[in-house]
């Protein structure tokens, strides 16, 4: 269905001004008719006044037979300037005096008939091909007897000229009024509505052009402000919907990432079970045989060094298998209450030989009244050990470990003075098998194991920058009984 295509200005012209002009035209025509009728009546009244003014002098002169006085009386009529002709008839209808147009206005018999009626009357007639208005007044003597008839005429052209002049003036006034109203309407439309609508259109064009944060001006009449407010509210709702959609997409992306991570963990768990089954026993046999050979007397020094190196590599392989098992395991947590300081001291003791071999000092910051956690001591301790081992391998000279407490959580920090973690590596640092170290120095499983253990305890691991310029790893675990704590 095609909608009408016209502007508000055209609608105002078509539905406001045209009806208004039509009403004005009809009203003006009716008024003009009344004015014209009034003009005609006034002009007739002028003739009647002239006739009544000379009626008494004429009657007095005719009663005494003074013909010269009669002529002078009707001649005085033309001093007024409104009379075309004046005629005096006796009782028998004979014209006895005339002034102005000397053609008889009426025949003698009709004049006698009009005189005999004895009443005033007037009307338009054709005289010599010209339309003339005649007014008849009977003349009486002192006794009231009709002795004659007075006829005063005026050209019909005089009536038409006044009426035409009045019509021209009225039409000119109507035209000027229409022009003035149209000008005022167009100017008022521009100032009151048109300019504001144009700004609304420009604002919408800017939004459509990509300026999604632009909002329409709230200036102008109340209706325009309401439209602008509604459009701005719609734009705000659209922006909110877009932000919500982006959040949902981010959440879905996070869920997909977690799903992939869970799938990786499941795959690693299956791999770890297979590796543990296939490699666990052979590695134990190799380590046991190497240990028995080392106990035999007379083993050459070169063989002793080789056997010890073999045992170190076997133990390294056993540790990798154990880390794979730690990542993929889904066993329930065996929670026990343990002091935060004791967990740190046990981790430091487990890595004391490693720190001596690397020449890195370990600083343990303690305080009185250490908080108590309810955790799986083995898995959580393994997480702390992995963070400390990672710090020892990255440090230049020192590592510092400490615990802290907030209103709803217990935390641990591990700081080193190494080169820190690059911003590009932070999003992937807890992924299994991701490492920045050489193949010999790392497998990329230590931080993944720590992350899995802390997550199973309902906590989080954060990575940042230490006060020495190196890396800081921070563990936060909900306090027992808080909403963040979950039991496996």
Explain briefly what this protein structure is.
With 488 residues, the protein is of the alpha+beta class.
Q: Could you explain the architecture of this structure?
A:
A hairpin with a 5-residue loop joins strand 4 and strand 5 (146-155). This protein has helices at residues 8-63, 67-75, 108-117, 156-208, 222-295, 301-328, 340-350, 352-358, 377-394, 446-456, and strands spanning 85-90, 95-100, 121-127, 130-140, 146-155, 335-339, 361-365, 372-376, 398-405, 409-416, 460-465, 471-478. Helix 1 (8-63) runs antiparallel to helix 4 (156-208) and helix 9 runs antiparallel to helix 10 (446-456). With 488 residues, it is of the alpha+beta class. It has a five-stranded antiparallel β-sheet, with helices on both faces. A five-stranded mixed β-sheet has the order 7-9-10-12-11, with helices on one face. The relative contact order is 0.06. Mean pLDDT is 77; it is low at 483-488. It folds into three domains: 8-168, Beta-Lactamase (2-Layer Sandwich); 217-330; 333-488, Histidine kinase-like ATPase, C-terminal domain (Heat Shock Protein 90, 2-Layer Sandwich). It is built from ten helices and twelve strands. It starts with 7 loop residues before the first helix and ends in a 10-residue tail after the last strand.
Topology:
Blueprint: H1 8-63, H2 67-75, E1 85-90, E2 95-100, H3 108-117, E3 121-127, E4 130-140, E5 146-155, H4 156-208, H5 222-295, H6 301-328, E6 335-339, H7 340-350, H8 352-358, E7 361-365, E8 372-376, H9 377-394, E9 398-405, E10 409-416, H10 446-456, E11 460-465, E12 471-478
Parallel strand pairs: 7-9
Antiparallel strand pairs: 1-2, 1-5, 3-4, 4-5, 6-8, 9-10, 10-12, 11-12
Helix pairs in contact: 1-2, 1-4, 5-6, 6-10, 7-9, 9-10
């Amino acid at each position: 269905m095609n909608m009408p295509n016209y502007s508000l200005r055209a609608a105002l012209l078509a539905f406001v001004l045209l009806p208004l002009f039509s009403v004005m035209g009809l009203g003006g025509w009716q008024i003009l008719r009344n004015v014209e009728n009034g003009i005609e009546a006034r002009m007739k009244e002028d003739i009647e006044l002239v006739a009544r003014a000379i009626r008494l002098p004429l009657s007095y002169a005719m009663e005494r037979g003074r013909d010269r006085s009669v002529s002078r009386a009707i001649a005085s009529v033309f001093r007024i300037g409104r009379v075309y002709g004046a005629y005096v008839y006796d009782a028998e209808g004979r014209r006895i005096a005339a002034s102005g147009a000397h053609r008889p206005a009426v025949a003698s018999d009709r004049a006698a008939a009009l005189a005999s009626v004895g009443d005033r009357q007037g009307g338009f007639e054709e005289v010599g091909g010209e339309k003339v208005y005649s007014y008849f007044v009977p003349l009486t003597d002192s006794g009231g007897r009709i002795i004659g008839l007075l006829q005063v005429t005026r050209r019909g052209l005089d009536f038409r000229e006044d009426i035409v002049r009045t019509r021209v003036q009225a039409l000119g006034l109507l035209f000027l009024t229409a022009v003035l109203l149209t000008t005022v309407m167009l100017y008022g439309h521009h100032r009151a509505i048109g300019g504001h609508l144009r700004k609304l259109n420009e604002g919408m064009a800017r939004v459509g052009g990509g300026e999604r944060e632009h909002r329409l001006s709230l200036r102008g009449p109340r209706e325009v402000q309401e439209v602008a407010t509604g459009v701005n509210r719609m734009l705000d709702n659209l922006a909110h919907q877009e932000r919500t959609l982006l959040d949902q997409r981010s959440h879905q992306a996070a869920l997909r990432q977690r799903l992939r991570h869970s799938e990786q963990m499941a795959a690693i768990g299956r791999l770890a079970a297979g590796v543990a089954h296939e490699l666990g026993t052979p590695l134990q046999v190799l380590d046991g045989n190497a240990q028995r050979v080392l106990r035999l007397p007379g083993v050459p020094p070169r063989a002793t060094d080789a056997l010890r190196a073999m045992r170190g590599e076997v133990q390294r392989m056993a540790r990798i298998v154990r880390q794979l098992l730690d990542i993929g395991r889904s066993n329930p947590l065996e929670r026990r209450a343990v002091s935060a300081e004791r967990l740190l001291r046990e981790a430091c003791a487990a890595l004391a030989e490693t720190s001596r071999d690397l020449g890195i000092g370990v600083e343990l910051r303690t305080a009185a009244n250490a908080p108590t956690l309810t955790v799986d001591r083995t898995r959580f301790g393994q997480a702390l050990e992995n963070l400390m081992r990672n710090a020892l391998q990255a440090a230049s000279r020192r590592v510092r470990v400490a615990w802290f407490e907030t209103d709803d959580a217990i935390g641990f920090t591990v700081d080193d003075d190494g080169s820190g973690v690059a911003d590009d590596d932070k999003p992937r640092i807890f992924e299994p098998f991701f490492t920045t170290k050489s193949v010999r120095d790392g497998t990329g499983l230590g931080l993944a194991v720590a992350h899995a253990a802390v997550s199973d305890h309902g906590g989080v691991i954060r990575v940042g920058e230490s006060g020495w310029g190196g890396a800081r790893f921070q563990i936060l675990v909900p306090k027992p009984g808080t909403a963040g704590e979950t039991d496996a």
